[in-house]
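for the recovery benchmark. tokens below, seq after
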């Protein structure tokens, strides 16, 4: 089956050669050398950062492109108002034209990969065909790929991912074709066709394209959840451990939270995953989560030994860096990595840079790629085939006003409403206007492979008798004061909020009921010095803000028409009434 399909794609793309990727170390070294020869990879100083490389993308291929991302299902209604829809037959016609001969003069790599622990009943297999060795090198760190995955394919159906940078014969460091971008998903035939970009989620089809867009449609059919969520374990001073999953939009804090270094004595966080969770209902009624990935593709800027010690330790060797700056001693640097910037560096654009340049040395969406196994606080059970039981789920966006530091949902329905009502200030993770507030339900706006109204209904349908529903919370680390400074210190101090949620799950009552959910009566702030009045502001119910929030939400929800579940209409009315 695999062979036939590979031959068929090869006949279309006309590569010079075909390379079935095994995942061996020798093969990895060979691909790295090839990438160095083509100047895609700059080897870093082995004394500073062994076996690590820097890649610089084309200046216009730096992030996900949501306006060129398509869901191609037979009925437009199934894609819904928040996705770009194209008729599958029409899209296949366009793609056939673009892919014809698109790999001439290049090698076509065939990458079998497994999302989720090998041998887990919850894992799913796929194969990505790509003409980008950079993609292969990244997938080696981020997925379980090569021979180990090929063995699992057998006769089982696999998701078909086809990717081309769209630049045949090219011998440039970063081939791409950004005039002809198509990141297209066919949920009905479980295919992904991506053309023109070599960057991140546009090209690493294992991640958002498969593990979220295609997987979310599978999950809907089969009664499980494929979510843009980190998974972490929290252990309290008594040694009790609980797992939480949490959803924030792109570049809003998942990797940082998943690797948190606790500032509270006796409390410990361990990392299961930093971006995607697949969750299933087990026979005992618990919700269990696996991390389908095997590595991190994390935001570099802002990452330092102070803010995210464990990420910095993770990338000390065997890492790929994309679009960060190169220091004079052959190491990497990005904004926020050290308090004092280097006196000179080569910017992500390959130009001389000094602190006086007035430009960013690293692109705001520059990233590191590294295997999960290099994370010092990787949970010992991160790879468990049966997944880990989830006690709580929380959501949060980047909101400078209105949304409090933390609150707990009044019920499952209310929790689904809170998540559906999420909005967040846009970041550099996707092409668009950074800082602009937009609705991003469940942090899945760019990643839901079907109608968002149906997705809300799917979440509501999780509430069934015999199930131990996780508690739902909503957080916001990003409130700002009048001068634009963050009111909450964030990072390791977020443990204080995690502690409150952990104890809420255990039934310790330390909360007050408000129109927008339960809020803490008190938080453990020992040893923390907040600005006077900051806590009050962080935990206030801003009536004026919420009035605006509610009316804006009603008009946002209106676009889903009859697809908007009645329960969410009711919840909107409840909040509106309560805050008025
Ligand atoms: P994706 O990989 O795009 O899905 O992003 P993510 O959700 O994993 O975000 P990440 O943890 O990489 O954080 C993105 C940016 O937010 C980084 O620059 C962080 O330094 C910053 N950040 C993360 N957590 C906090 C926090 O608690 N407070 C503040 N102020 N900034 C934070
Ligand atoms: C995100 O944008 O949410 C990411 C990075 O995690 S990417 O893989 O490019 O989607
Ligand atoms: Mn993400």
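predicted aa per position
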């Amino acid at each position: 089956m695999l062979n036939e399909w590979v031959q068929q794609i090869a006949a279309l793309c006309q590569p010079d050669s075909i390379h079935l990727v095994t995942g061996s170390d020798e093969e990895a070294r060979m691909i790295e050398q090839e990438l160095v020869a083509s100047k895609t990879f700059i080897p870093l100083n082995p004394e500073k950062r062994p076996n690590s490389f820097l890649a610089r993308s084309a200046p216009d291929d730096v992030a996900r492109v949501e306006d060129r991302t398509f869901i191609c299902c037979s009925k437009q209604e199934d894609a819904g108002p928040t996705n770009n829809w194209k008729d599958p037959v029409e899209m296949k016609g366009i793609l056939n034209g673009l892919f014809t001969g698109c790999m001439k003069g290049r090698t076509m790599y065939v990458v079998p990969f497994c999302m989720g622990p090998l041998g887990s009943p919850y894992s799913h297999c796929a194969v990505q065909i790509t003409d980008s060795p950079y993609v292969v090198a990244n997938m080696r760190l981020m997925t379980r790929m090569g021979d180990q995955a090929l063995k699992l394919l057998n006769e089982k159906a696999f998701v078909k991912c086809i990717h081309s940078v769209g630049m045949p014969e090219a011998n440039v460091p970063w081939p791409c074709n950004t005039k002809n971008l198509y990141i297209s998903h066919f949920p009905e035939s479980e295919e992904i066709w991506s053309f023109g970009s070599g960057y991140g989620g546009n090209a690493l089809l294992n991640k958002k394209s498969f593990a979220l867009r295609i997987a979310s449609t599978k999950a809907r059919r089969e009664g499980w959840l494929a979510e843009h969520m980190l998974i972490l374990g929290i252990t309290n001073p008594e040694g009790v451990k609980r797992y939480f999953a949490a959803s924030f939009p792109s570049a809003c804090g998942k990797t940082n939270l998943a690797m948190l270094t606790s500032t509270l004595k006796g409390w410990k966080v361990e990392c299961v995953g930093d971006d995607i969770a697949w969750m299933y209902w087990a026979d005992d009624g618990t919700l269990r989560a696996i991390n389908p990935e095997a590595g991190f593709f994390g935001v570099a800027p802002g990452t330092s030994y102070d803010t995210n010690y464990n990420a910095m330790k993770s990338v000390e060797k065997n890492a790929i860096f994309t679009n960060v700056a190169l220091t004079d001693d052959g190491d990497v640097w990005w904004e926020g990595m050290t308090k004092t910037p280097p006196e000179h560096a080569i910017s992500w654009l390959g130009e001389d840079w000094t602190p006086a340049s007035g430009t960013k040395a690293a692109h705001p969406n520059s990233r590191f790629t590294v295997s999960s196994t290099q994370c010092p606080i990787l949970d010992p059970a991160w790879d468990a085939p049966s997944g880990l039981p989830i006690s709580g789920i929380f959501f949060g966006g980047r909101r400078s006003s209105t949304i409090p530091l933390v609150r707990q949902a009044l019920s499952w329905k209310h929790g689904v409403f809170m998540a559906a009502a999420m909005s967040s200030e846009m970041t550099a993770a996707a092409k668009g206007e950074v800082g602009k507030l937009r609705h991003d339900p469940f942090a899945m706006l760019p990643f839901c492979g079907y109608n968002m109204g149906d997705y809300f209904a799917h979440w509501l349908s999780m509430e069934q008798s015999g199930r131990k529903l996780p508690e739902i919370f909503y957080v916001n680390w990003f409130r700002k004061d009048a001068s634009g400074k963050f009111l909450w210190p964030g990072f390791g101090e977020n443990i204080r909020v995690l502690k409150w949620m952990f104890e809420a799950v255990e039934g310790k009552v330390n909360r007050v009921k408000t129109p927008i959910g339960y809020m803490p009566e008190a938080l453990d702030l020992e040893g923390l010095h907040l600005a006077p009045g900051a806590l009050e502001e962080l935990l206030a119910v801003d009536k004026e803000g919420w009035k605006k929030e509610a009316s804006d939400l009603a008009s946002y929800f209106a676009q889903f028409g009859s697809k908007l579940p009645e329960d969410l209409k009711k919840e909107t009315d409840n909040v509106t009434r309560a805050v008025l």
